[in-house]
Design a protein that fits this description.
It is a single chain. The chain is α+β, with helices and mostly antiparallel strands and about 400 residues long. Helix content is about 60%, strand content about 5%. It contains 14 helices and 4 strands. Strand 2 and strand 3 form a beta hairpin. Helix 2 crosses helix 3, helix 2 crosses helix 6 (about 155-180) and helix 9 (about 280-290) runs antiparallel to helix 11 (about 305-330). The longest helix is centred in the middle third of the chain and has 28 residues, at about 210-235.
Length: about 400
Amino acid sequence: MSNRISPEKQQRIDFESQFINFEMIDILSKTILEELEAWANKTIYKPLGGVLRVERPLDESVNACAGINPKTPLEAVIKINMGMIREIYRDSFVFPPFSEQFVKDSDNIRDLNSQFRNLGFTFDSGLPVIQEDKRNNLYHLVKDIYVGKGERFTEDATACRFMYFEIALAWVFFHELSHLIQCHYRLKNQPSANVDLIEYHEIISSTESPEENSKEQSREILADMEGIDLTLKYMIRKDIFSSGALYLFMCALGCLFNRFYNGHSEKIDIGTGSHPHPIIRNEFSVAFITNSISQRLIEMGYAKDKLSVDIAIVYLSTRASLMSGIYWGWRYEDQQDGALTSFMKYSTTHDPEPRKACCLALEIEMNNQLVTIAGNHLMTDNFLSALSQMKSFFSQNG
């Protein structure tokens, strides 16, 4: 396993941890997760006679899991470690000022914008502008504490910080929820009658056979995609959806997949473990977002036709991948100035054959398991219609 974190940068991060306001993280994360727990129980579990609990263990590891007893599968728990919540909070505070400084010091974003002919959806600033009526409740709760605290705490930057934090944490919750509502326990390899708990961890190793690993990895991708679908619906339901919020969501996903990549080999294959290579997870997630929400955005009035919205989504996705990758290298990794991180290199055109072969193999496994998932899904309004609009990797060139 390859640890790419720079020891010197890790020391700096460890030092700054003493200044993180843990009480604020506790209050804000509790606010978000209690609301999500209430929604899931009202919408999904209570009508079925079940219950979902959400816990935040005081565990330093950057991890989360969902768990059920297969004998009583409608009694479920989602655990998101405070270590994961803290790191999401940390990135939500550091990524915005990094982005602002990057556009001042580099021509990369101006060059990218010119490639998209500086159309209306492009923006030259480091951060998107989130209009007042699309700012989330967290911003309104904390704006008097943070806005004006320093030159980095403008209204726009503060709105972006707390939007990033909320939607990143919401996606982690919805990813874990997706394991439960897709009834993945029904697809486990011959579960023992004596098993009282099945858990799906975000970061965990596995000694299963390659065949079983590919099945489990495909289920992780399905949880990623339904997690994205539920997060987008959450943003729409709360009336905080905007192109700026969508961009920050893409950046947050990029940062999370970069984080999961640490410890992974550069070799892209099914390999060992219950989780896919993070570059493959990123590949499917970007494809799902790019191909599956166009019609929804048209219906919401964000675009008049599919072509115009597709171009805008490609721009936001490209820019988010660029910024999250450069941020991660600057913030965490030991690398030469100007060099692409390993994640960025292998996420582009470098060595595409193993990447596509892995995507194809996992797509086959996904399709094999979707029949069971569709027949047992706990939600009627689920991600399957959006998934049906996603372009197959078998039909893509390169």
